[in-house]
Design a protein that fits this description.
446 residues; alpha+beta; Rieske Iron-sulfur Protein; Naphthalene 1,2-dioxygenase Alpha Subunit, Chain A, domain 1; nine-stranded antiparallel sheet; four-stranded antiparallel sheet; binds FE2/S2 (inorganic) cluster; binds fe (ii) ion
Length: 446
């Protein structure tokens, strides 16, 4: 693989393993911009992975639904009369119109606005206008129900769906990442609750720039977010207070591409006071945290701060800050960000209100931290329009050879400033893109 003459094979002809060149700690940035690679991702990644669909709080009772996407496929997620959750392709079986055109609501049926076919909440075709006159009573309505997402599973109130019936059980797929997820989703043992609607906005960048950053990139924070941290500090703060802690860990899942990282230093709380406010810090580190320590232990209950995490491919979150993200792909160069706020169900009301205020201020569409990240991703993507820019390798070697198993932390673990999880993300991505079966993908990388 050489960029000297720009003489790459078409991505269609190449193994994706060559584009990520794991051993050399490099990636070819074509993977962020190439249209053929993107189309393949819709089939091989989004067509075969477990994808986050909804929080159960969004659909508490029968007929409640939310519209979402699996890759670029529009999806309706709807609570069934028996309490289970079903998901359907939001595409009329007549001529392809979306049968649901609202974000969320309660329905007894979904009626297509084109010619009026109607489907009940179990996806069955229940009404065809002029059935006798136009179809002579011969249409088999049982055969023309909405296309159902075959695999649905719920983990910690998070509903996931998958098109591939051969995918491992969701709990196996999440695997050792659950230990890190529970810092946010099962902190108190009393369950979690979604307290917001969904903020939605677009960013002109490839979905992987966002997903891998949340999996693996603490390195950007002291530089990209310095101005936001300084702006959040009190006027009389010492300059040293802007010096970020260096103690922490990064986690790379042995299988399936998940990653996380966090501070383990007590210093981590200083930043949280300035950015998240005293109410939230008292809740996470002070008098309210004893229950979390009893439930998860001292490390997960109190010590971990500033955590970032991605469940492959496009579901990310920041425990402590408690923002959830779905990076919906919209072509190779655009994403629609969906952002939600989650809290411990048993948190006091003033803590829930503090989260609503702070997360919106820091990580809402115009949040002071949020804009730092979008600025970087948009700029990287813009540069990749160039002929030479999109074939010149990127360095993804940080911390290579310095990760290992750890008695305290599941998975493969390195220092917090590392690209170990990024390499794990891309190794899994390449194996999926090359068409490995789930039986093959289930073999650990290490
Ligand atoms: S496209 Fe839906 S009824 Fe014709
Ligand atoms: Fe960031």
């Amino acid at each position: 693989m050489s960029e000297e003459d720009g003489n790459y094979m078409s991505p269609k002809e190449k193994s994706m393993i060559d584009l990520i060149n794991h051993d050399g700690g490099q990636i070819i940035p074509l993977i962020y911009s190439d249209g053929d690679i993107y189309k393949k991702e819709l089939d091989q990644i989004f067509g075969r992975s477990w994808l986050f669909l909804a929080h159960t709080d969004q659909i508490p009772s029968a007929g409640d639904y939310v519209s979402t996407f699996m890759g670029e496929d529009p999806i309706i997620v709807v609570r069934q009369p028996d309490g289970s959750v079903a998901a359907f392709l939001n595409q009329c079986r007549h001529r392809g119109m979306r049968v649901c055109r609202t974000d969320c609501g309660k329905a007894r049926a979904f009626t297509c606005t084109y010619h009026g076919w109607a489907y009940d909440i179990s996806g069955r075709l229940v009404n065809v206008p002029l059935e006798k006159e136009a179809y002579h009573g011969e249409i088999d309505k049982e055969a023309w129900g909405l296309v159902r997402v075959p695999r649905i599973a719920v983990f910690r109130n998070l509903v996931f769906g998958c098109w591939d019936e051969t995918v491992p059980e969701l709990e196996d797929y999440i695997g050792e990442a659950a230990w890190y997820m529970d810092i946010m989703f099962d902190r108190s043992g009393g369950g979690n609750e979604l307290i917001s609607g969904v903020h939605k906005w677009t960013i002109s960048c490839n979905w992987k720039l966002a997903a891998e950053q949340f999996a693996s990139d603490m390195y950007h924070a002291p530089v990209s977010h310095l101005s936001a941290v300084l702006a959040s500090m009190p006027e009389n703060a010492a300059p040293l207070d802007a010096d970020w802690p260096k103690e922490g860990r990064q986690f790379r899942a042995r299988r399936f591409g998940h990653g996380s990282g966090f501070f383990t230093s007590e210093r981590g709380w200083d930043f949280n006071v300035n950015t998240m406010g005293q109410t939230i810090v008292d809740y996470l580190a002070g008098k309210h945290s004893d229950g979390a320590v009893r439930h998860l232990g001292e490390m997960r209950g109190r010590r971990v701060t500033g955590q970032h995490m991605t469940i492959f491919p496009n579901f990310s979150f920041l425990p402590g800050i408690n923002v959830l993200r779905v990076w919906h792909p919209k072509g190779p160069e655009e994403i629609e960000v969906w952002s939600m706020i989650l809290v411990d169900k048993d948190a006091p009301d003033e803590v829930k209100q503090a989260y609503r205020d702070r997360v919106t201020r820091m990580f809402g569409p115009s949040g002071i931290f949020e804009q730092d990240d979008a600025e970087n991703w948009i700029e990287v993507q813009r540069v990749l329009k160039g002929h030479r820019a999109r074939i010149s390798p990127f360095n993804v070697s940080m911390g290579k050879g310095h990760a290992a198993e750890d008695v305290e932390f599941p998975g493969i673990v390195s220092g917090m400033f590392s690209e170990e999880a990024s390499r794990g993300f891309f190794q899994h991505w390449a194996r999926m893109m090359d068409g490995q079966s789930w039986a093959e993908l289930t073999q650990p990388l290490v």
